Amino acid sequence: MQRSLIVFRKFVCYHCQPRRQFQFESNATPLCVHKNVKKALNENRPVLALESTIITHGMPYPENLKCGIDIFATGGVGGVHRKGEDTMDVSADLRQLGQTPVTVVSAGVKSILDIPRTLEYLETEGVTVATFGPTTDFPAFFTKTSGCQSPTNVKSVEEAVNLVQTHKNLKMESGVLIAVPIPDEEASVGEKINKAVEKAIMECRQHNIEGNAVTPFILDQVNKLTEGASLAANIVLIQNNVNIGAQIAKGLKNKPSAKRNQQTSNHTKAKRPVVIGGCNVDIVSKCTHEIMNGGPSNPAVVTQSFGGVGRNITETLWRLQSNPLMITAVGKDSYGEMMTKHLENMTKSICSTLQNHRTGVYNAIFNKHGEVHVAVEDSAVHRKIDKDFLQNYENDIKSAGMVCVDANIAESGIEYVSSICKRHAVPLLFEPTGELIAAKGYKAAQKHFNSITYITPNISELNQIYFAETGKDAPSHEGIEGLIKMCHTLLDSVLCILVTMGGNGVLCAQNKNGNKLFHHYTLNKQPKWAWLDQPTGNVSGAGDGFAAGFMHGLLRGCTTDQSVRIGLTVAQRNLRSESAVAEAVTPNDVEISKTCWDVKELTF
Q: Is the dihedral of CA 440, 442, 443, 447 positive or negative?
């Protein structure tokens, strides 16, 4: 494992000189991450953090430099202090564990604390507690048993990895505490240390020592009373925690399902797709009665979720386990904080927070039949994703297995991405996003002729693109024949056009070595899947789901025909979800889709 240090919770000098102070300017970052840690994280290698109070308070210099060796863990977590029922003195560790999905490996809780009440508090906060070993005896730092029991135990590193992974899969918002008893060779001094602890507590009260000065004082006194035996046991204890914590970290990284967004197919190691586009907070109002205009408040069901074309495509690819990278931007506001955290929990993302800008918001009102009555959006922040912004990520773009760009971003950004993709022969899918911006985005991309490999317009977007390209009115009134006419013209500069037609399916138009082929995938004869009988929930993510499913198929080596079918299945999944992207989307949709959905070959 890479030698590394991440500074966590407390600020610690990397060289660990005693009493060195840090001076921070008002605009300085509050978190310092060592370059080795950044490198390990970028390479998806296991990293274990040391809670730095061990260095600053728990041990004297220079012994505090030796405890973690190369990989770090913690000694004992904080807890409810004795007489905490009167003083309300409860360590912030417990509350933080209750709201942070992190795994902490420690030697349980120090005996100077109220261990029964600490365990009760952890239970209240929903923290998973397990003893590492053959029994459920909960350790008390210097001693193997405290007289209390953990709810469960894990007998090996493998069992610990399975416990933590299950916790992650359930998307719990609380943490996991793995309580590791002190090694047998130091357990024999436990009774001596405990007596010293009780004496140190009495001295602490006699000297009226309170607050955060208590723990350093007691540990220092215990070290003196035990003539260094407690310090020696402390070091062994920390090293043991580090060893076990490192094995768990390594096991999680090696476990096939350790992180869905870092998985690849068992049979294909596809390159990572890159999605460049917008992310919104969607506020959707579904009216329950006929809409009355002009002033009265219409009764509705109002929901808030995450959306945006680029984000929807990214989430769908993530659920299909395509390991996407998203490049986007948000404003410095509460919505931006929500979106950043959401993306971090979902997939690898480059989400820049821009000062003096608002995070994208989409607000739609649906009538009682599920049709959009009116929609508005605040998406100015997306236009900040321009050439200058994207030049920082050229390596990510040119090394991608496929790139998707949506028309929400700046035209200079679209032109720049298309130039990189063309220069490095990276397939580019252009998502027109909306009829008001589809043509501008298309023209920006086509400044580098034949740079668009795939395009996924709906009928309205196709009309606008056709008019911008030819100056002629769209013949869409002629039905599918009119769509074929428009696609026939556009195929001179685009390899494949996928026109989404709502309930009428998809028209796939391809230029194969000068031969222009047209296929209509209909929804008339649907597969016998029970979920297809569910009512429509949200129409906003269906087209994005089709684009993502199509991309996923191509990235996994499927044919264009198979990829269209996969896209149709994913679109139908999203259509029946209350959110833009259905949680029911899984890689299994790939296998069940390859031979489903009717298709007809058409001629021009």
A: positive
Whether 298 contacts 289, CB under 8 Å: yes
pLDDT tens by residue, 485-541? 999 999 999 999 999 999 899 999 999 988 999 999 998 777 878 888 888 877 888
What span, in angstroms and rounded, lies between the C-alpha atoms of 209 and 216? 10
Q: Is 110 one of the catalytic residues?
A: yes
**pTM for the whole structure:** 0.58
Q: Is the distance from CB of 134 to CB of 153 less than 8 angstroms?
A: yes
Query: Which residue among the candidates 110, 144, 286, 348 is catalytic per the annotation?
Result: 110
- How many Cβ atoms sit within 10 Å of the Cβ of residue 262? 14
CB 345 within 8 A of CB 313: no
Question: CB of 356 within 8 A of CB of 332?
Answer: yes
Is 317 within 8 Å of 272 (Cβ atoms)?
no
Of 51, 315, 415, 461, the catalytic one is: 51
Domains and CATH numbers, the chain: 35-254 (3.40.1790.10), 260-602 (3.40.1190.20)
Tell me if the bond preceding 427 is cis, omega within 30° of 0: no
472 in active site = no
Q: At what angle do helices 438-445 and 459-470 cross, to 10 degrees?
A: 50
Q: In sequence order, which ranges of 308-427 are alpha helices (DSSP H)?
A: 309-319, 334-346, 387-390, 394-398, 411-423
Burial class (CB in 10 A: 0-12, 13-18, 19+), 32: middle
